[in-house]
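Input (structure):
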């Protein structure tokens, strides 16, 4: 079967079924009592376009999305390993700028590899240490769902890039937040936690599946980043499409008993799947799920 039919999750499921990969369900792999590691690859034309992002922002984002997976594991990042595939005609100054962007994320680069390639390819491995990794399977009925900050800014920024709209939201798309402090704070007691990379709807579904409970999210309580509603209107899209379906906000979603300083967006119940409520009534999500298609 071709990968186009199988899909990413189909492929991973098949590898796991054969015992060729193990314990791959979390944001980062734990390989010793307190070590965690994660890796993300970015490919030109698939994950980014050099006419939309500069080399410095690209470096920053590559570091940030990996640090985000460590944050979702309650880990303190300690090192990055960077592998680059570069066309031979690449300017050295551009590569230096890329590394300056990585350095801005504040975690030292301790190794990696460089090779020539047909197009720019960037793979970052992030290593960290965590005393407790919540994972995704411990959410239970009665837990509250919290997010670390408003959502939708990355999606709005993406639309601005696409439509040529000048807006400070573009920066939110190019420069994901680093929620390391929040991650460590939540990891102490959270029953489940992940970073919102694929959108609140999809990522909540992952916790629901792994934890065997239902996640109920009240749309009125979902914090929307400043300016997102205005961009949604300009591009004729639903504000919840931007805030719940696009992803790349890299805020953390956690199931906790005590929300502390974080924003409650819903709760866990007996059952399965993810339910979105508006004014207490279930919302048909097809209205905004199309965004990912
Ligand atoms: Mg993640």
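Output (sequence):
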């Amino acid at each position: 079967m071709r990968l186009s039919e199988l899909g990413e999750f189909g492929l991973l499921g098949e590898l796991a079924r054969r015992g060729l990969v193990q314990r791959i369900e979390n944001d980062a792999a734990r390989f010793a009592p307190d070590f965690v590691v994660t890796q993300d690859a970015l490919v030109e034309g698939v994950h980014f376009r050099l006419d939309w992002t500069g080399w410095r922002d690209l470096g920053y984002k590559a570091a940030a999305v990996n640090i985000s997976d460590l944050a979702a594991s309650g880990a303190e990042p300690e090192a990055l390993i960077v592998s680059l595939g570069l066309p031979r005609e690449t300017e050295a100054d551009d590569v230096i700028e890329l590394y300056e962007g990585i350095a801005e994320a504040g975690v030292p680069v301790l190794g990696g590899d460089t090779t020539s390639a047909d197009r720019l390819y960037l793979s970052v491995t992030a290593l960290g240490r965590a005393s407790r990794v919540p994972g995704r399977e411990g959410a239970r009925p009665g837990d509250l769902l919290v997010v670390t900050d408003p959502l939708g800014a990355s999606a709005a920024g993406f639309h601005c890039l696409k439509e040529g709209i000048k807006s400070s939201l573009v920066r939110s798309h190019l420069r994901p937040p680093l929620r390391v402090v929040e991650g460590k704070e939540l990891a102490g007691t959270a029953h489940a936690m992940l970073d919102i990379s694929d959108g609140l709807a999809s990522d909540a579904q992952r916790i629901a599946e792994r934890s065997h409970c239902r996640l109920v999210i009240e749309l009125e309580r979902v914090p929307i980043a400043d300016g997102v509603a205005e961009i949604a209107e300009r591009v004729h899209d639903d504000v919840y499409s931007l805030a719940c379906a696009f992803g790349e906000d890299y805020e953390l979603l956690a199931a906790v008993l005590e929300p502390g300083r974080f924003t409650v967006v819903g709760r866990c119940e007996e059952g399965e799947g993810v339910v979105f409520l508006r004014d207490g009534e279930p919302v048909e999500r097809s209205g905004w799920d199309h965004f990912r298609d």
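Notes: The first strand starts at residue 29 and ends at 32. The CA atoms of residues 80 and 126 lie 5 Å apart.
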